[in-house]
């Protein structure tokens, strides 16, 4: 094989205790669009090039131990929106991290940690 393998995209798949509630949260709070929803089975939301999938889970401890990271633009505006909705994780306010990103995190209704990040220089 002469061509190098390249990874070109990633899609987080989060555990959901209630697919319809998860989709509603990402649509109403974060501006995603619902793509697919089958309660008790699977769901998908999309915003621009980013998709998030949800799999139906009955164990409430699983989403509390998982999460994902989403790269965004205009992180200060998104942070302001999430702050006004009261969904910013209390231990993860907007801050510049030592690795050079501005970041903050939220918890979705099931406890999945969703971290948003942007290069600190914009």
From TrEMBL:
Residues 6-119 form the VOC domain. Pfam families: Glyoxalase. InterPro entries: Bleomycin-R, Glyas_Bleomycin-R_OHBP_Dase, Glyas_Fos-R_dOase_dom, VOC_core. Keywords: Antibiotic resistance. Belongs to the bleomycin resistance protein family. This is Bleomycin resistance protein. It comes from Vogesella facilis.
